[in-house]
Design a protein that fits this description.
Blueprint: E1 3-12, E2 15-25, H1 27-41, E3 49-50, H2 51-63, E4 69-76, H3 79-86, H4 88-106, E5 111-114, E6 119-125, H5 129-149, E7 157-164, H6 174-180, E8 186-188
Parallel strand pairs: 3-5
Antiparallel strand pairs: 1-2, 4-6, 4-7, 5-6, 7-8
């Protein structure tokens, strides 16, 4: 429970004799503020972070030269086809399925965000290059597994990753560097 308190001291002959106050429950106001903050930082369709939140975190990590970072960029390959052929409701289901797959892999260890209509970004902070490459392999395996069990929409995703060590110049920003220097793109799930 959240409370707001207003107190006023009461004096008699320059001596404090009591404190008069009002205490009221502000649970609804606090919940309203928390809801607004959540909406400002999360994508409403997938309930993962949005581009604004991701850009803020990426900018902060770009300033920390003592911490290695890796970035994954993921793109759903068949969203336009799904929308055009089966309707936007099915396209939304595909986006949610992809977000859920990425959450299973990355939510506890990285910053995950939907940064565009069919694009997702993952920021791994203070992880080694080998950990990033292992997660890349895990992502490939999870896409293939998801599609083999045929539960939910078929996911086809292209993705790549970039790694910035402690020694690399980060002056242009992590997102720019990642876009320009992706190791390679994978197309999985086709």
């Amino acid at each position: 429970m959240w409370f707001e308190e207003y107190a006023t001291p009461i004096y008699e002959k320059d001596e404090l004799v009591a404190v008069q106050g009002i205490i009221r429950n502000i649970d609804e106001r606090v919940k309203f503020i928390q809801d607004i903050e959540y909406q400002m930082s999360h994508d409403p369709l997938t309930n993962i972070h949005n581009r604004q939140f991701f850009d803020n975190i990426a900018a902060k990590s770009n300033l920390d030269f003592d911490t290695p970072v890796a970035m994954f960029l993921c793109d759903l390959d068949e969203l336009k086809y799904m929308n055009d052929t089966h309707g936007h409701k099915k396209g939304d289901e595909l986006i949610k399925a992809a977000a859920n797959l990425l959450k299973r892999i990355f939510s506890d260890i990285a910053v995950l965000a939907r940064v565009g209509g069919d694009e997702f970004a993952i920021l791994l902070i203070d992880k080694s290059k080998q950990e990033g490459e292992s997660l890349c392999e895990l992502l490939k395996e999870e896409i293939l597994l998801q599609n083999s069990i045929k539960k939910g929409p078929h996911i086809s995703m292209s993705f790549g990753h970039a790694y910035l060590s402690l020694r690399m110049n980060r002056g242009n920003g992590l997102m720019h560097y990642s876009m320009e220097n992706l190791n390679y793109w994978f197309a999985y799930g086709r």
